[in-house]
Amino acid sequence: MVLNDRPINAETPAHLLDDKITTAENMFVRNNGIPPTSIDPANWLLTIEGESAKQSKQYTLADLKQKFTHHSYQLTLECGGNGRAEFSPGAKGNQWTTGAVACPKWTGVRLADVLKDVGIKDDAVYIGYYGKDTHISGDPSKEAISRGVPINKALEEENLIAWAMNDADIPFMNGHPLRLVIGGWPASTSGKWLERIVIRDQIHDGAKMAAPAYRVPCEPVAPGSKVADEDMCIIHAMPIKSLITYPKSGDSHKKDVQFPVRGHAWAGDKAVSKVELSIDFGQTWLVASLEKPVNRNAWQHWHSQIQFPSKGYFEVWAKATDSDGVGQPMILPGWNPKGYLNNACHRVAVQVM
């Protein structure tokens, strides 16, 4: 479902995200700028530099593949604005519903291995990336997006400089030939068409790092409030969330037959400890069967069987809880000016015949 065509942004309906490993055709597309017009993988260069790098170094794709150990992880990427469409008052930006999330298999080299090969000074606090996409204005002096993460996050072993998705080249719209993959944090930290990483002695100050982009109020605010830039805090890990991928909302079902329900759940840097389902608007809950993640920062799959008590209209609600005991809110979480971090319970409608 295309939300915007300049730049192109598109999400996937929940029922098409049923696969445990998100397929290329069902991977959401998020762009802040205009994708590059030409790609030459054979001559692609990745530069690592910065005031907290011990040296500046360049790598070709062949260098990365030959010099470093290859790793594959399933990593969850979710747009920070996924669910923005539900906030009231509304927030400007792409009106994502539930489909700006995915968990493909990524293959590449560890970001940490490359950073350590260059050398990290003791004063390093952050990394930032730059990609080959261009600013929507066409002004070459402006960056479309240049975000980053704290150095301790960057050095976690699951973070990749990736060239493959699901054992094939990363699709062009998802960053071919090279992208950063930081699972569990806003997907805006996983830069596409990656050509430069800087090791910083301060919080990275690239495009879309300053407020209000990818920030929420440091303290709760009333809906519709104006929030000063200095009172906005950078989003780090994404919150606990779940998605019902079967049934499709609006499906019908026979009353006397058990009804299968399934989906995924994820929790940023944490694990999911429990998924519960309700068919009475949250009055009672049934615990679903929950699988372990294939690796850290991958979503977890859950399933259950439901017996409806009567004919009529029902809603199936899903609520996940993370390893710290924090659960999803049944209604919208705290309002914020940019419509980020909506992790309310997912709901689908079922007509029982």
UniProtKB/TrEMBL annotation:
GO biological process, one term: sulfur compound metabolic process
Domain Moybdenum cofactor oxidoreductase dimerisation: 234-352
Entry superkingdom: Bacteria
Residues covered by the Oxidoreductase molybdopterin-binding domain: 36-206
Name under which the protein is recorded: Sulfite oxidase and related enzyme
GO MF: heme binding; molybdenum ion binding; molybdopterin cofactor binding; sulfite oxidase activity
Keywords associated with the record: Metal-binding, Molybdenum, Oxidoreductase
Cofactor: Mo-molybdopterin
Organism in which the protein naturally occurs: Paraglaciecola polaris LMG 21857
InterPro entries membership: Ig_E-set, MoCF_OxRdtse_dimer, Mopterin_OxRdtase_euk, OxRdtase_Mopterin-bd_dom, OxRdtase_Mopterin-bd_sf
